[in-house]
Write a structure and sequence with these properties.
single chain; alpha+beta; Serine Threonine Protein Phosphatase 5, Tetratricopeptide repeat; Metallo-beta-lactamase, Chain A; 7-stranded mixed β-sheet; 19 helices; 20 strands
Length: 565
C-alpha cells in the first residue's frame, strides 16, 4: 500500500510540484499536455489548453464549437487558437455540460443570435450555482470542499504546487442554451447533420453526447483520461456507474472512427476507439460488480476499500489510472448507496462518539505522550495511514497541540506526495498548509451573490430554515414574513419551538405575522451568504411589523456561520 511504506517513485513537474511519477507517465498517454491543435479528421479539430479541449467542426456556413471554456478568459484564449485554423465565424455552440460554458461570448463575438445547443438541464443548473447538491442547503460546504479539491490553497510553485486541475475564477461569458435537445433528437446545424444523446451522464446530470454520422465522429464528456470518478470527495449527487457505463456503450455501439473528449486526448481509428471504450466499460463493471460481490460476502464499507480491485489486465490501462480519484473510495460509496451506513455488524449500531473513542483508545495505548511517540515512529517508517490515524485520536483530545498539528501536517504532506490522484493530493496538501497556518480554509464557501440571485428568492429563504438552533428557540412560536421588494415576492417562516416551516404563500399562514421585513434581494443574499451581519441586514430593511430589536432577536435564534469560521 502506497500509504504504508511502499516505495513510490516521485517526479518534479515544471512548476516544481513533487508528485507520483507513474501517474504522470499514464496521464501523458491520455491527455494533451499543453496548448495543442489536433486535426483529428477532415473538418474536425481539437484545441486544447492542456486540461480542457474544444472541438471545432468546420461547416459550409461557419464553425460549430463544442465547449467554450471554464471562464471568459479561457474563451478569449481559445478564440485566438480558433483563428489560427479558420477565419470563418462561429455560428453555433454546443455545451458538453454546465462546467465549460463561460467562454461563450468570446467565441461568438458579435454573433449573439447564434444557435446555442445544450442539455435541457444546463440553464437550470447554472441558476443554482452548479454545485451538484442532493440538498441545496449543503452547497456552501461543497463550495469549500471544491476549493480544497482543486488546488485553491496550494502555492503557485514549489514542491506543494498544483499537480492537476486548478479551479479557475474569472468573468463569465455564459450564453444560455436557446436550443435544448432531447435524447436521440436529430438536427442539421449549419449544414451538418447531428444526433444528440442526453440520457447518460458522467460528473453532471446535463451531459450532451453528439454524433456526426456523415463524419463518423462522436463528441462527449463520458470518456475521461483516467478512471471515471464515480465518487468525488467534495460530494455531489449520486453518480451511478451503470449510467456512465451505458453512455460509453452507446458511443462504442455507434462505431465511430474518431472520438473527441472534453478532457481526454482524441481517439482515432475504430479499432482504437473500441479497445479504449471496452477497457473503461469493463473497468466500471469490475468496480461495481466486485463491490456487490463483496457485499454479498458480508463485507462492510471499510472492508471494501481493499477488496475492490481491477482485474490484472486492466490495471495498466491509462484511461483507468487512479489520477483523479482512488478505487478504494468507490466501494464504501456504492455500499452506502445500496444499503446505507450500517455494515451489518450489530456491534456497530451504536458506537461511542468519536471523542469518547479517542479518549479510551489513547488511554489504552499508554496515554497522550505514548501515542504521539507511536505516531512519530509510524511516520518515520513511512506508515502514513497508521500515523495519521493515531494523530487523529490525539487531535480530538487536544486540537490546539502544536506537536499534534505539526506532525499531522507532515504526514498529510507526504501522503500528498505519494498519491497518484490529483484531487486527493490537493486535499492532503491544503490541509497540511492549514495546520501550519500558511492558509485559512473556509468551512463554508457560498456562491457569489450574483449567482445566487439567478434563483428565485424562495430558494434561499426556504434554505435558511435549517440554521435554526433548537435549544435557543425551544419555547418560541413566531410567524415572520420577509418581502423582497425588488422582486415582488413575500414568503414566511413559521418558527414552532425549534423547528421552522417555510410558507411560500403568506396567505396560508395560520395567523397574522408577528414580524414583517421588506428588503432588496441583494441585502438578503449578503446576509444569507454570511457577507453581512444581522445588525446591518436589519438596518437596510424596512420593518413593517414589530421593531428592529425584535427582528434581530429572531434572526439571532439561527446559526451565524460567519462567526464560526
Amino acid at each position: 500500500m502506497i500509504y504504508m511504506g511502499a516505495d513510490v517513485r516521485l517526479t518534479t513537474l515544471a512548476n516544481g510540484a513533487l508528485t507520483n511519477a507513474a501517474a504522470q507517465d499514464k496521464l501523458r498517454r491520455t491527455s494533451y499536455q499543453a496548448s495543442e491543435i489536433d486535426a483529428v479528421a477532415p473538418g474536425i479539430t481539437v484545441l486544447s489548453n492542456g486540461f480542457l479541449n474544444l472541438t471545432v467542426i468546420e461547416a459550409a456556413e461557419g464553425l460549430i464549437v463544442y465547449d467554450t471554456g471554464e471562464t471568459l478568459e479561457d474563451g478569449e484564449q481559445l478564440a485566438k487558437l480558433i483563428r489560427t485554423i479558420s477565419d470563418k465565424p462561429v455560428v453555433a455552440l454546443i455545451y458538453s455540460h454546465s462546467h465549460y460554458v463561460h467562454g461563450a461570448t468570446a467565441l461568438l463575438g458579435n454573433a449573439m443570435n447564434a444557435i446555442v445547443i445544450g442539455h435541457p438541464n444546463v440553464n437550470a443548473n447554472l441558476a443554482t450555482g452548479g454545485s451538484g447538491s442532493l440538498f441545496a442547503e449543503t452547497a456552501p460546504i461543497q463550495g469549500s470542499r471544491t476549493l480544497q479539491q482543486f488546488n485553491h490553497y496550494v502555492p503557485k510553485s514549489g514542491a506543494d504546487a498544483a499537480a492537476g486541475a486548478t479551479l479557475m475564477f474569472g468573468r463569465s461569458g455564459f450564453v444560455p442554451v436557446n436550443t435544448p435537445v432531447q435524447d436521440g433528437q436529430r438536427l442539421t446545424v449549419a449544414g451538418v447533420e447531428m444526433q444528440f444523446f442526453t440520457r447518460f451522464g458522467s460528473d453532471t446530470d446535463d451531459c450532451l453526447t453528439v454524433y456526426l454520422p456523415a463524419r463518423r465522429a462522436v463528441l462527449n464528456n463520458l470518456l475521461w483520461p483516467f478512471l471515471p470518478n464515480i465518487y468525488t470527495l467534495r460530494g455531489a449527487k449520486f453518480r451511478d456507474p451503470r449510467e456512465w457505463r451505458e453512455g460509453l456503450k452507446l458511443i462504442r455501439d455507434l462505431d465511430p472512427e474518431v472520438v473527441t473528449n472534453t478532457h481526454a486526448r482524441a481517439i482515432k481509428g475504430s479499432a482504437a476507439v473500441r479497445a479504449t471504450l471496452d477497457a473503461v466499460i469493463d473497468g466500471l463493471s469490475a468496480i461495481l460488480d466486485q463491490t456487490l460481490r463483496g457485499i454479498l460476502r458480508g463485507l462492510g464499507p471499510d472492508d471494501l476499500r481493499s477488496f475492490v480491485r481491477l482485474p490484472r489486465h486492466l490495471r495498466d490501462e491509462p484511461n483507468l489510472a487512479e489520477i483523479y480519484g482512488e478505487i478504494s473510495h468507490y466501494g464504501p460509496y456504492l455500499y452506502n448507496a445500496a444499503l446505507g451506513w450500517f455494515d451489518g455488524d450489530a456491534a456497530t449500531i451504536n458506537p461511542l462518539p468519536p471523542h469518547d473513542q479517542a479518549l479510551r483508545l489513547v488511554d489504552a495505548m499508554g496515554g497522550f505522550a505514548a501515542v504521539l511517540q507511536r505516531a512519530n515512529d509510524a511516520f518515520a517508517a513511512k506508515e502514513f495511514a497508521w500515523a495519521v490515524q493515531l494523530v487523529g485520536y490525539l487531535q480530538r483530545l487536544d486540537a490546539a497541540s502544536p506537536d499534534v498539528r505539526r506532525l499531522k501536517a507532515d504526514i498529510l504532506q507526504q501522503m500528498g506526495r505519494v498519491t497518484p490522484a490529483h484531487t486527493v493530493r490537493s486535499w492532503y496538501l491544503s490541509q497540511a498548509r492549514a495546520l501550519r497556518g500558511e492558509v485559512a480554509i473556509q468551512r463554508l464557501s457560498f456562491a457569489n451573490t450574483r449567482v445566487l440571485a439567478l434563483a428565485p428568492p424562495a430558494d434561499s429563504i426556504e434554505q435558511y430554515r435549517v440554521r435554526i438552533d433548537p435549544e435557543k428557540s425551544a419555547n418560541v412560536d413566531l410567524v415572520v414574513v420577509l418581502a423582497i421588494s425588488d422582486r415582488g415576492t413575500r414568503h414566511a417562516w413559521h418558527l414552532r419551538r425549534g423547528v421552522v416551516e417555510f410558507v411560500a404563500d403568506v396567505g396560508r399562514c395560520r395567523r397574522r405575522p408577528d414580524i414583517e421585513l421588506a428588503t432588496e434581494f441583494d441585502n438578503w443574499l449578503r446576509f444569507f451568504s454570511c457577507k453581512r451581519n444581522v445588525e446591518e441586514f436589519v438596518s437596510r430593511a424596512t420593518i413593517t411589523a414589530a421593531t428592529p430589536a425584535q427582528a434581530i432577536a429572531f434572526f439571532s435564534l439561527f446559526d451565524d456561520y460567519a462567526a464560526t469560521r
